[in-house]
Amino acid sequence: MLTPATGARGAALDAIRPEAARAPESGIVEVFNYGRDRQGLTPLWVGEGDLPTPDFIRDAAKSSLDAGETFYTHQRGIPDLRAAIADYMRGVYGTPFADGGAFVPERFFATIGGMHALQLAMRLTCGAGDEAIVPTPAWPNFQGALIAGGASPVEVPMRLVPRGDHMSWTLDVERIADAVTERTRVLVINSPSNPTGWTATREELAAVLELARARGLWIVADEIYGRFVYASERAPSFHDLIEEDDRVLFVQTMSKNWAMTGWRVGWLEAPPELGATIENLIQYSTSGVAVFMQRAAAVALRQGEGFIAEQRARAAASREALLTGLAATGRIEAARPDGAFYLFFSVAGHPDTRALALRLVDEAGVGLAPGSAFGAGGAPFLRLCYARDPREIAAVTERLARWLARS
Fold first, then answer.
1. C-alpha–C-alpha distance, residues 116 and 131, integer Å
2. 3-class DSSP state of 124
3. pLDDT tens for residues 81-130?
4. What is the β-pairing status of strands 381-385 and 342-347?
5. Any idea which of 7-16, 126-135, 173-182, 307-316 has the lowest mean pLDDT?
6. What residues form DSSP beta bridges with 146?
């Protein structure tokens, strides 16, 4: 007889699809839940800043609601948002193809955040029995989206190596090529990277693109942090290199640049000839993004450059406070992040970073993500999101330094 506590639950798990049962639990959420309501804790475990969505964006949503825009809408996104995305991309990236061309609204499809865009990209390119190569450490949702869709992620660990007077993560394209099999369909490239801050050079992107062309593979490009770089206005992009017939899908979100994590608005960029297929996938998953959120996103894209600059300046100051303060302890090892807003660091004497993350909640009042959540090569590290007030990050740095001195 099945018992309510164990047998019934086990029977239910046995009855669902294996790809759903195999979807990995998040090591980030475990620590988040452990410390969620702690008084005085500074939560730096998830990838969002401390600034609320600016008034001018919220006001656009309110105006849309007041106008009664509460009905079903365009599956691909309202024309105004798709035009705003095209204008924004043209302003940031110029032309999308190496042989000339223009960003047109038909390339862009509104999604329920970047995660939905990623799921659509995976659904378009791979499924049961297929493989996708993911350089790691990597955002765990890449693997989750692949596994939930029936595909198999193949991790290719990146290397942390000395470069001049600091450490640097490097992408070994030859290792990626060696991992390609007859089942490989997709290369997932995230630059700037969550969690490491690694930012691909133009030459590295060119080598990946050459490999994809030679093997007939798709590239799913997550360039969400492309504006969060510290030595230039934007990171190198596949947009600088691709031709019109290249198999590249771009996932994007409003979450980071415009402080809209809770809004769940993003976009998928794809060849226009895939439009009908993508429209069907949106219809069968979400039926589209609420109009008031799309109106807010369009205004953010058109008026948000000053806010992006403000966020990037805060992140740059916070990065310096962290690197200087933690390096002075002599206890950490980390690459200097060229992009995104995370410090991915190891602590001498503490190889079990899941246990360490839980201890830091209790003993230092700081919430960090364990590197084991980010796949092969990540286990010895912690991820700290520094997209916050530099004064708060300086205080956290002092708190961590004191903890390290007595641990």
1. 20
2. helix
3. 999 999 999 999 999 897 778 899 999 999 999 999 999 999 999 999 99
4. antiparallel
5. 7-16
6. none
pTM over 0.85: yes
Residue 77 backbone class (left: φ over 0; alpha: ψ -120 to 50; beta: rest)? left
> Same structural domain for residues 252 and 227?
yes
Domain encompassing residue 30: 16-53+306-406
Is 90 part of any domain? yes
Q: Whose CA is closest to 190, among 248, 131, 139? A: 139
Q: Evaluate whether 197 touches 235 at the Cβ level (below 8 Å).
A: no
- The CA distances from residue 205 to 164, 192, 219, 283, 389, in Å, are 22, 12, 11, 33, 33
End residue of a domain, out of 256, 278, 304:
304
Say which DSSP state 352 is in. -
Give the C-alpha separation, 202 to 200, whole Å: 7
pLDDT higher than 60, residue 5 = no
**Sign of torsion, CA 237 242 248 249?**
positive
Report d(CA 266, CA 268) in Å as an integer. 7
Q: Where are the alpha helices (DSSP H) in 304-338?
A: 305-327
Q: Rounded to whole angstroms, how far apart are CA atoms 333 and 324?
A: 12
Residue 6 within any structural domain of the chain: no
Residue at 3 is within a domain: no
Write the CATH number for 369: 3.90.1150.10
Other C-beta atoms closer than 10 Å to the C-beta of 63 total 14
**Interatomic CA distance for residues 44 and 52, integer angstroms:** 16
Q: How far apart are CA 252 and CA 258, in angstroms?
A: 12
345 and 387 part of one domain: yes
